[in-house]
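job 3f2a | input accepted
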Amino acid sequence: MNRMTSIWPATLELLLDGMAQGGEAVGRWDERVVFASGGLPGERVRVQLSERHDAYARGTVTAVLEAAPERIVPRLPGADHIPWQHIDYAAQLRFKRQIVADQLAKIGGLPDAPVADTLAAPHPWGYRNSARLHGANGELGYFAAASRELQPIAHDPLLLPVLNEALADLRMVLRDDSPDEIILRTSETYGYVLAALRTAHGSGADPLLLARRWRTRCAALAGVTVLVPGQAEQVLGAAHLIEELGGIAFQLRPTSFFQVNRAAAELLLTLVRAGLKLSGTERLLDLYCGAGAFMLPLAAQVREVVGIEEFPNAVEDGRASAALNEVTNAQFLAGRVEAVLPKVEAPAEAVVLDPPRRGCHPQAIAQLLRLAPARIVYVSCQPGTLARDLKLLVAGGYSVASVQPVDLFPQTAHIESVTVLMREA
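job 3f2a | predicted structure (425 res):
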């Protein structure tokens, strides 16, 4: 036990005065920081502590003694995958903008970064076109926060209706053979669903039998991919769906990464295009390109586009989508960005960065500085790693022209943003 741990009480009352990057409200007790999930700035609350350290503690709000005006009634109380559903949507947008600005100042050393107001999602509910759920003992749901405890759910208000309908049909055919993982994806353009069932080897469940029963019951389910460790993938029905984004028809398998909020992704693409200011003569690099959600719609506006992605399935889907749309000036390179980028020769006049939550590897930043593109557009899903990477890019000769938060994930603390950087003369 740490020296100070025993001094923390089991519960405490405090006034919350901020919002942290992870989505927890922040207060202080005995001059130490307390992160309180389920709270709001301006509230006086009672917090049950679950994690205690010398300088800080974490816990959950168990009682709101004085509520903030932004507090609303949650749609699905206790659902950990919707942690901000108790917050008025306009306030969610304000908090997300403030979190981005705070992280850029504290971590990136950019106190005057031009952070715009957060762009609202077109649909604050019912927006997700994909989901990853878990199963056990005939139940389906999500894991509770920071645990593997299943929280069963009958209807997820974040999902598009067709996905909830597909899940309802799956529940009707479940017996004692719950898969360990269920991956769902729908084509918003065409309205059908693909799924993947992942079952641990030796679990006793027969995922093929379950997939057949599910497909028989669910008219919208076009295909199911069965994934068992140590065995080849088995596909019943369609292996891919077609989704449209930015005028491109994407061929996607259920497990490939793609934007989960298509309407908001169109906003992202518009911002990326505007930030690059392409003239038609550039060689564009798209780093962490996934299945090509940015590079393929932008290909018509550049001389050549090169994407780098480490996941083979995404690369395969991207190449198939390029062929489907007769995009001939796009090249996908498979591998980690930090390993592949050193092999890429200049020129690269423009770059799109869209890394995962961990941000860019330092070697990727170093290689980017070697190529010295005139403009970089950084699409981030984690303000802290964005701030860390911007600090390196600014030190390497770039200036931050704009930072635009975009709400791709309403009712959660996840924050997407688009930052435009220009190389200083």
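job 3f2a | The first helix runs from residue 89 to 106.
job 3f2a | closed
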